[in-house]
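Q: Protein A?
A:
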Amino acid sequence: MSKEPSFQSASWRRLRRNKGALFGLVIIAVSIIVAVFAYFIAPDPSPFANRIILEIGGNKPGFKQDFLLLKKDKNVASTSFFNRLMNGKEDPYYYVPIDSHQLIGDSVIIQKFIDEGLSERQAFVKDQLASSPVINQRFILGTDKFGRDIFSRLLIGTRVSLSVGLITVIISLTIGLILGSLAGYFRGRTDDIIMWFINVLWSIPTLLLVFAITLALGKGFWQIFIAIGLTMWVNVARLVRGQVLAVRELEYIEATRALGYSHMRAIVRHIWPNIMGPVMVIAAANFASAIVIEAGLSFLGIGVQAPQPSWGLMIKENYNFVITQNPMLALAPGFAIMLLVLAFNLLGNGLRDALNVRGKI
């Protein structure tokens, strides 16, 4: 006699057959790997990929430039693996853009690049330079107006988008599950009070509410995450309330009351596991929405602050290039936002079908 597959294995098989959901899952997995190892992948591993070289600002994708590596006046300590993983490593050299160089004895004669068609002759002794004093670097997506590598900042900016989505989902699920469960399980006055509070917050535009919370908490990396999370729990609470209202009348919940189990045990051990399907779907949607909201707030200047790279902030810093010679500076982070949001939406749709979630969420 063949054994019936479990609900989890059957759901995973249905999810694997959904090509859109698998595409979204692959994009999300790649984004997580990039976010974790961003400082090892990025051509510019300095903190926040903030290596400013004003002479080469605003160049197009594929731009190449020779650099002379000039030692800094101070000794730059070596960086441990963990510190580089989290914060990058400080450059031990100044990157001096050059047009040409010539080795003469113990000296290096260079034509320092200042602007197109403009250079300056300078000389350095080898003791002032790296062991390999001249390197050629290619900027895959070009450089912004400060001469920073767009590709490196794009990779490190992945951390912000995934972090804001994760923290927002944790906050929204925590508050939404608790308040929605209390309202649906106890009903009566508890339900009336919680639903009144939910309806008040529901009537306030999301961006306006985020502005208010941001003004109260201040601008910053963590503040914006908390602000977005505190505005996105309402739809989770409404969904959970409806699910709990339906489940609480089923026989197995009546049995928990007859056996004398506490309300908390009935909710956590017996109701929550059976309503997680719709909750997972709405969590994926909230993840995508949080990425878009963070990008919008950073574009408006009240989200993540410079020099921390954020895709929305990168669009703000380079949007004027869209109508000039180099639109890719603003389009690249825009495409990244679109791709990651699409991935979470496709995954959410796949979860909805795989978990047999019925009704409109």
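Q: Protein B?
A:
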Amino acid sequence: MEIKLIETKEQFDDVIENSEKFFLFKHSLTCPISASAKEEFEKYSQESVIPCYMIHVQDARKLSNTIVQDFAVKHESPQALLFNGKSVGWHESHQNITNASLSKAVEYAGDDLP
């Protein structure tokens, strides 16, 4: 599945209102660890039936901060978050973002795919 870029709060609000389950990847455009994690996220997204989204934290700092406040998840980048309903069911950061960890997160969250 294609990764879609989210750039505004309005886009994010639309996703959260219309998706039962989705991944959000918070990507730093300048960090080599984030580049590596992005590669893993891209590998996962190619096989995923769960929608995958990304924000560039440098370009969407306000949105990134809003997510921290609204969902009580400490900001890190890179960071992957699995939203289940309107809450964060799982999150991981840095080198712990792998194709395998993303797949396991979905298994842990249950088989009720969107």
